[in-house]
Design goal:
This protein has 317 residues and is α/β, with parallel strands linked by helices. It has helices at residues 18-24, 119-131, 136-143, 147-163, 186-189, 221-231, 233-238, 248-257, 267-290, 299-302, 304-307; strands spanning 30-36, 42-47, 63-77, 80-92, 102-104, 173-180, 193-199, 211-217, 241-244, 262-265. Bound molecules: zinc ion (2 copies). One zinc ion is lined by residues 7-8, 17, 19-20.
């Protein structure tokens, strides 16, 4: 008996269902089955429609050799870890002189050859890490795989992106700041201090969209100098304004390598320095008057926050 409410999965003849294909959203692949494992993992079986295929080497029409199944980790679906079971088509080249014997269906839009995650799952992981501050550990849990499966899949992509020098183009305002990476032993987790380079160039609307360009281990003028030298002469000549935190080493690097740029102390650090100076004076006067450090009830201690308050926020009182 035919099943009137059934989907593609209920069909007896191989036909594809537009609804299921739309739901999964992988161009060129059709859903042929959806199942659930005992561990609550959703398994979506997909395949491409049969067509004639030419050999990638010689172009002669190849003979179909059936399908070979590949399991891929996909983005979680409806809060369930999801696997994509891709029934890849295989062919054999019939041309005797051709070095290619058997070849398998490939589509980099779906997954890289020998990849464990789908291309879109890799992209999803990167977006989650970049924009949502997700950890690889947490994402691995959501995907239902080991940490190293996720990291092994995205690390090569990150390495390629890091090697891409295109992001350094058009930088006219360059910021540098130290970054404390962790607070445990450097022997366990590598160097604590990093130097971060940020693109602070204004866009055509005059807005600053801080863009992290690089992070390199260490906090010294030498680190910054080396990094600037690696960017090359054209990059350095392009920088008009170089901002920095009040650290002598970075200033030396700017004087040395970005001689034509204007060095600007960034406002956060200027305010922090001014605030610290006011605090020091307050503590010194406190000691001179009372001979002990400020505590509740001391007038100077009571106004410690008012002293550091911006002028426009002060009331008559
Ligand atoms: Zn369907
Ligand atoms: Zn061939």
């Amino acid at each position: 008996m035919s099943e009137p409410t059934g989907c593609c999965c209920a069909a007896t003849t191989p036909s594809y269902c537009d609804h299921c294909d739309l739901l999964v959203g992988l161009d060129g692949l059709h859903v042929v089955d959806v199942d659930k494992t005992g561990h609550g993992v959703l398994v979506v079986t997909m395949e491409s429609a049969p067509t004639q295929m030419g050999c990638p080497t010689c172009g002669v029409v190849a003979e179909s050799r059936g399908r070979r199944t590949t399991m891929l980790v996909d983005i979680p679906c409806f809060a369930r870890p999801t696997r994509l079971r891709w029934r890849k088509r295989t062919w054999r080249c019939l041309e005797p002189a051709c070095p290619t014997r058997v070849f398998t269906e490939q589509d980099e839009q779906i997954a890289r050859p020998r990849g464990l995650l789908t291309t879109r799952a890799c992209r999803w992981v990167l977006e989650q890490v970049r924009r949502e501050h997700a950890s690889i550990h947490g994402l691995a849990r959501q995907l239902g795989v080991a940490w190293k499966t996720v990291w092994g899949s995205v690390q090569p992509i990150l390495a390629t992106l890091a090697d891409d020098e295109a992001r350094f183009a058009g930088v006219t305002t360059l910021g540098v700041d130290e970054h404390l990476w962790h607070h445990v032993s450097p022997r366990k987790r590598g160097p604590k201090e990093l130097t971060g380079m940020v693109d602070l160039t204004r866009d055509k609307d005059g807005r600053v969209r801080a863009r992290l360009l690089d992070l390199v281990p260490g906090r010294s003028g030498t680190v910054y100098k080396t990094w600037l030298d690696q960017r090359g002469t054209a990059f350095k000549a392009h920088v008009e304004v170089a901002t920095l935190d009040p650290f002598r080493g970075y200033k030396n690097a700017i004087d040395d390598k970005l001689a034509d740029a204007t060095a600007v102390l960034d406002v956060f650090h200027v305010v922090a320095l001014a605030g610290r100076a006011v605090d020091e004076v307050r503590r010194r006067v406190q000691q001179e008057i009372h001979g002990h450090r400020g505590r509740s009830g001391d007038p100077l201690y009571g106004i410690r926050n008012i002293l550091r308050c911006a002028a426009e926020r002060l009331t008559d009182k």
